[in-house]
């Protein structure tokens, strides 16, 4: 399953309690149990710039195209993570744009 995101999503906070998209000046909460199929992505797909999460497995629910403009990623308080290799594709997708990476209390 993929998490549905609009092209205006700039900052995304993924947590065990839900997903918060920040679009321009408003915030809305989206259930982390979405059933929407987001398999067909276009050029106006979301280009997220910042992601904060406490569960790296949530990153796998986003399409790889969403990470192409990612400049900042923070992963914290994820006691279950053993290795970031499980989200290797995410790091490959943002390898040319990522400027800031913080991993703490994992």
TrEMBL record:
What is the name listed in the Swiss-Prot or TrEMBL entry for this protein? Uncharacterized protein
Organism name? Opuntia streptacantha (Prickly pear cactus)
Region Disordered, as annotated, extends over 23-44
Q: What lineage is this protein's organism placed in?
A: Eukaryota, Viridiplantae, Streptophyta, Embryophyta, Tracheophyta
């Amino acid at each position: 399953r993929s998490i549905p995101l609009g092209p205006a999503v700039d900052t995304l906070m993924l947590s065990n309690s839900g997903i918060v998209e920040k679009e321009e000046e408003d915030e809305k909460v989206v259930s982390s149990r979405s059933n929407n199929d987001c398999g067909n992505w276009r050029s106006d797909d979301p280009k997220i710039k910042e992601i904060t999460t406490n569960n790296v497995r949530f990153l796998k629910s986003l399409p790889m195209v969403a990470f192409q403009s990612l400049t900042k990623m923070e992963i914290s308080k994820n006691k279950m993570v053993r290795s970031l290799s499980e989200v290797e594709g995410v790091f490959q997708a943002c390898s040319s744009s990522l400027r800031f990476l913080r991993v703490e209390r994992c």
